[in-house]
Amino acid sequence: MVAVDRHGKRFGNEALSDHEFGRGSTLYNHFRGDMEHKPNPNPAPAGKGPFYAAKIQMGDPGTFAGIGVNERSEVTTEVGTAVPGLVAVGAAAVSVFGAGI
């Protein structure tokens, strides 16, 4: 965790001017940032630790929004009526990238 804390502190110190990667230095970065945050709309200071890290790997969850379901997890048709006896749960019904409801 020492490395995470060290990088978190460096990120916070460079929030006004990111010398390593130039974040916040382009018009695109300014558009995507908080224009009310001065002097640099993007990025903002990381704050005070402790900081934590998680390894994230690319993957294919299969579907973006999942199969359409109602509040009882019944699969629905294009017009919203339930398909009798057919239910969907988990990633088949609701992906972490969007809701199937």
Percent of residues in helical segments?
A: 10-25%
Quaternary structure type? single chain
Class from secondary-structure proportions: alpha+beta
Number of strands: 2
Element order: H for helix, E for strand: HHEE
What coarse outline follows from CA principal-axis ratios? Answer: elongated
In the predicted model, the low-confidence regions spanning at least 5 consecutive residues are: none
Classify the beta-strand content into a percent band: 5-15%
Main β-sheet description? 2 strands, antiparallel
Radius of gyration: 21 Å
Main sheet: which strands, in order across?
Answer: 1-2
Average residue-wise pLDDT: 74
The total domain count is 2
Could you give the distance between the termini?
40 Å
How many DSSP H or I helices? 2
Structure description:
With 101 residues, the chain is α+β, with helices and mostly antiparallel strands. It contains two helices and two strands. A two-stranded antiparallel sheet has the order 1-2. Strand 1 and strand 2 form a beta hairpin. The longest helix is centred in the first third of the chain and has 12 residues. The two termini are 40 Å apart. The model has no long low-confidence stretch (mean pLDDT 74).
